[in-house]
Each structure stands twice: as C-alpha cells, then as structure tokens.
C-alpha cells in the first residue's frame, strides 16, 4: 500500500492532505475549531492528528465510517474523562450517518461496561449536541 | 425460581427468559461458562446480567447487534482492564456477523483514544480468540 | 423474596415503584433533579436506573444503607471522573445517616488507593455539599 | 494531636510500630507476605505503607474498621486493575468483622458505578478468598 | 536515615516543616492556594500532603527535581481526570527548571500511552499555564 | 522540518526505517519480541508503532531519552493496566541510561498520584526486570 501511495509524490504530504480532508468530512466545524486551537500550542501535535489519526487510521478500509464513529463514541464513554472529544465525536457520528437513536443506544449500552455515571454524563453531552443542531432526543 | 415467576405473564420471568436466550445467541459457549461460574458465587448477580444486561439492554431495538458488539469491543478496549469480557465479546462480535477485519479495525482505532498499550493487549486477545476458532488473523 | 413480589401483580411496575421510592429516600432533591433532566434525553435509561439501580440493587437486604452509601462514595472517588454522582451521593450518605466526619474519612482513605488528586477533588466536592446544607466541615 | 504523640519518644518510630501492628491486625498473613516481598525491592516504600498507610490513615478514629475495609473493597473494585490488593483486602474485610454477604453486596453494587466487568472480576477474586478460608459463598 | 532525622528533635515536625518548604519551592503560589483551600475542609489531609507527599517523597534523593516533575506531569496526563493537579504541576515543572518545550514533549508523548484526548486536554491546560506566566508556547 | 526530511527519498520509508532503529535502540530485545508477535496479528499496527511511535514521537528533539523513558514509566504506572509495556519500558529506561534507583523513585512517586496499588504492582515488575538483568534492587 505504501508503494502505491508514494508513486505520485510525497507520502507525508499525501497523509497530511488526506487527513485534513478526512477530519473535515467526519468532524465538521467542531473538529476544525479544536484543531485550530491546538495549532497555537502544539502545531506538530495537530499535524500528527491529521497524519496519523485521520490520514492513517480513519482512512483505512475494512470498517464503514458509521460503525467507526459509533465505536469511537463507545470508547470515549468508557474512558470517562474525554468530554471534549465525546462532544466532537457524537457530532461526527451524526455527520457520517448514525441516527440520534443509535448514538443514545451505544451510550446506554456502555452503562453495562463502564458504569452508569459514565453513561449518564455522556447522555447529557449528547443532549447538548442534539440541541445545537436543532434536534430533539429520540423517544425511548 | 424461574419456573414460578414465569407462570402468569410475569414480566420479570419474561426478562429472565429473554435475557438467557439473548446471551446464548450473542456469546455462545464462552458466555455460558462465565455465567455458570458466576452462579456459584453470586446467583443474583448472574440473574441481573441475564435480566438487565441481556433481557433489557441487549434486547433493545434501535441498533443492530453487529454494531452493538463492535461498540462493546471498543468500550472494553478503552477500559483497559476487562480482559475476560474482551475475550468473550470479541467472540460475540464474530458470532453476530462482524468479520475478523472489523474486529481488528475497531481495536486499532482505540489506540487513538485509549493509547497503544490498551490496543496492543486487545490485539493479542483477538489473536487467541481467532486461533481457538481456527481462524487466521486478517491481512493488513 | 421473588414470591412476595410477584403475588399482587406486575413485578416490573413493582420494581419501578420500589426504585422510585428508594431513590427519593436515598438521594433526596439532588437525585430527583438529575433524573428529571435524564428523562428528557433518555427516558428508558431513567427507568433502568429506577428499576435496576434502586429497585433491584439498592433494595437488597444484606448491607445497611449507611455502609452502602459510604462504599459508593469510595467507589466514585476511585473512578476519578464521576463528579456529578459524587456530589449527589455525598449528599445521599448524609441523608441515610453517615456523618460529615465519616464521609471525609472515606474520601481521605481513597488517597491510598486512587491517589491524592482523586481524593483532593472529592474533598472539594464534599465541602460544597456540606456548605449547601449549612454544615461546616468536621474538624480533624 | 502531634503533640500528644510525641510525648514519649520518637513519633516516626511510633508511626512505624503503630502501622505494623495495624497492618497485621487488618490484613493478617496475606498482607505480611506482600510487605515482605516489597521489602526486597523497595524497603522505604514498605516503610511508607506502614507509617502513612497504616500508622496514619488506618489508625484514624472517626470511621469503624469494618466500614473502612468495605469502602476499600468498593474503591479497589472501581479501580479495575488492583487485583492483588483486592484479594488482600477482601480478606481484610472478613478479618475485621464484615460478612461474606456484605463483601458480595459491596462488589455487586459497584457494577452500577464501574460496570459489570469490574464487579465480575472482583466476585471471582472473592470466591477464591472465601474458598481459601473454607467458606462457601453466601446465598443470594 | 530515620536515626539521623530524629537526633535534633521531633521527626514529625521535621517532616511537616521540610514538606512545607519543599511544596513552596516546587509549586509556588498555585500550590499554596490549593493547600489553603484544603485546610478548610480537611486540615489533617493537608498535613499528610505536606508530611508524606513533600516531606517524605519529594524530599528523597535519587532523582533530580526536574525529572520528578516531568514524570509527575506524565503520570497526571495518563490519569486523565486530574486537571487541577496538572495545572499546578505543569507550573511546578517550569519552576524547577524544565522548559516549555520539555513540558509539551512529555505531554505529546503520553498520546502514545493514554490516547490523544488525554494529551489534547493537557496541552490546553499547558497553554493556560504558559499564558498566565506571559510565556508563548514553544515552536514545534 | 518535513521539507528537509523529504528531500532525499520517501518520507514514509524514512519514518519506518528511523522508527525501527529507534525502537531497537530504546527497547532492545524485549521490544523486538513484542513487535514480532504483533506483526502476526496486525502488521499495519506494528508499522504504525514503528512509524508514528518511534519514527515520529521518539525521534523528536527537545527532550532527552532518559527523561522520555522515565516519564513513560510514570505514565504507564498511572494507567494501572499496562503491565506488558511497563515491563518493556522499565527495561528501556535502563537501556538509555536511567539507574535502577531512578526507576524505583519514579514508581514510588506515582503512589501519590495513582495510588499505592498501581505503584506496588509496578515495583514487582521492576524487581523482575532487574533480576532478569542480574541486577539487585537499589537500596533505599
């Protein structure tokens, strides 16, 4: 795979460009805001997120984006402390086609594995994300 | 106990029966083994896992089982310490239709959120689960 | 216990009613506020907290409520990220008969197991809960 | 308090002696084994556990030992990774008067806050501790 | 070592005095503010932080203070939830001679082990600490 | 910086080669064994560890390797669950010039931030690493 990538130029700039496009596609405006703020304190770190996070990992085939983002929401709920990223990626999950109901289901399910406080906090973040988009929570 | 409860349309025995069927469908033999061992030390806790975990949560509509299990794998990787459940539910993900490749993709993606050690440990557990089923790891 | 529960009707509505009463008894006003907010985003999840959390777990015999709540405070301190629940359940511990001194002792002890930052953050939450009730911190 | 302690000699050796006695009282043989092994790699750290852990914290008035140990069990379950200490302190809880049933109740309750995997793993450790003492698990 | 310490008086008051001096040296004003607030809710806990945290641990030879504080920053990033302490100890690292660049390098490196969200949150805290001191972030 | 790197060839293969050399330099034989095993289950993930982990992050200037590895040990202790990586990187710290005493100091210090169980477990891993190299633990 690396060989094909490098045929028409610089693989590093390919990764950077591909990652920037992928991040924009997935996270939309809220990701762009975090990356801009990050660029002020640690521009290399911002570059790694573009290149490795989105240019490498999120550009892999083998798993559809909707499942990737719902899995990411699950992982962030389980971490317990990643509120900023949870807010961004609940939005990302909606951006790539997951429904409000699916987001809420994934969060509720994490109560089984990471406890009710982690799920509860995530549901309140979801409510905020839904409201900012003019969406009501799903019924059920 | 289950017998008495189930006689007159008892919702509790419905939940128990539904949960037992759901757990068997999802986890297969490895889940059954954990539940049997658990029944010896805390039978009520085994009952709650059937009733609440599988009779309530895993019986909800609104999210397909394949996405549920891949999200669960993601959450368990992020927790970092849940090796027994990770082994069971990597198997569950395969049982409900996820591919080896999808399992590996979800685990690798968690390196972004929970760090490489958590993902690395999970990949070694996945290798063990694949091998026990006579499967080779996916290429890539 | 199951026999008595199921004699006069629907065990699920028994669990719900029992859980609502138990939550009110333990958490008082602050629990009610969280549950009301939760009901707007995920009413089923609110129901699970009533039914499973308070109707099942917190209605079990075998451990007195004061020890249950002090153990819950300990667990929430150890989690590190559960600030909302810690605030509610420091209040719950006081509601069911624990003293300010006991709450502070449990939190300080967690420094041994979860580190000083987790204990420090919890002590500041305890100070807030005590102040809202017009209580001064215990001496010592 | 420091004044009274220092009247009859060296407070540091008082703390050390008091801590050693307290650790022996609480943890019995299993604590002694851990401390002996620790003394080989980091004798100062063993001394801090005696002095600070048991000479300071576990020698405080204001909370009875049974509640202290059940709270410690709760905190260790919530941590998720502290298997060695959980085994020692499930034993400690029994040593200072908690019943098997109380230990199991505290562990099950942590499923609400730290998730089922953490509680499940702890129940299997409890089963081992009970078996080593010739105790059967409590019913229920 | 205990013998030498105790020759000229009370080792406990030695530890307390030594710890207070060490905390002031390392954390400066921000540590003093936290300790003052803590003294209002749990004065004994404040004393333990002085005596054990700074009088014992941070007064040990065998590791230079700059490495101690950068390691502490690393550990706090990995914890994920210790924002208050991270803010204090990013400042401490600068106080004892670490550069802005070194602080940022340690935080970025933790992305490998604890994930990008933990590192990202820590970088934003570092930006705040740098700004309060009139420092710009390092380039790179 | 990226410009200079890409002048004489393929930056991706540069990163891979640089990362492989860096990993070998830092981790020695124990890192090689983990990477070989990982290559069997997820070769792309092994490549990311070489490229991003060691080719990018561990090849950065701005922080000396000894401080990098001691900070990594601190972070892994704080995580609590990363036993495999802790064993590898306690070895790495020794490989790049840290002393046994410094490793033990960093681990003991983490007791303050992540609790005694995390530090205790890490000290036992350190004892194993020291013993495999024919080293005795440091005194103190």
UniProtKB/TrEMBL annotation, chains A, B, C, D, E, F:
Q: Which InterPro entries match?
A: 4CMD/NDH-1_regulator, AhpD-like, CMD-like
Which positions fall inside the Carboxymuconolactone decarboxylase-like domain? 43-127
PANTHER family, A to Z: 4-CARBOXYMUCONOLACTONE DECARBOXYLASE FAMILY PROTEIN, GAMMA-CARBOXYMUCONOLACTONE DECARBOXYLASE
The protein here is known as Carboxymuconolactone decarboxylase family protein
């Amino acid at each position: 795979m690396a060989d094909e990538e490098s045929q028409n130029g610089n693989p590093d700039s390919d990764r950077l460009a591909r990652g920037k496009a992928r991040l924009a596609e997935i996270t939309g405006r809220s990701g762009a805001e975090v990356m801009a703020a990050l660029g002020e304190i640690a521009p290399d770190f911002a570059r790694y997120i573009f290149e490795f996070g989105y240019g490498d990992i999120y550009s892999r085939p083998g798993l559809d984006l909707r499942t990737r983002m719902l899995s990411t929401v699950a992982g962030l709920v389980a971490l317990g402390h990643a509120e900023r990223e949870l807010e961004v990626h609940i939005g990302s999950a909606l951006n790539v086609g997951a429904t409000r109901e699916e987001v809420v289901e994934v969060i509720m399910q994490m109560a089984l594995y990471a406890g009710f406080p982690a799920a509860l906090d995530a549901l309140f973040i979801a409510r905020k994300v839904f409201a900012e988009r003019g969406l009501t929570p799903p019924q059920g």
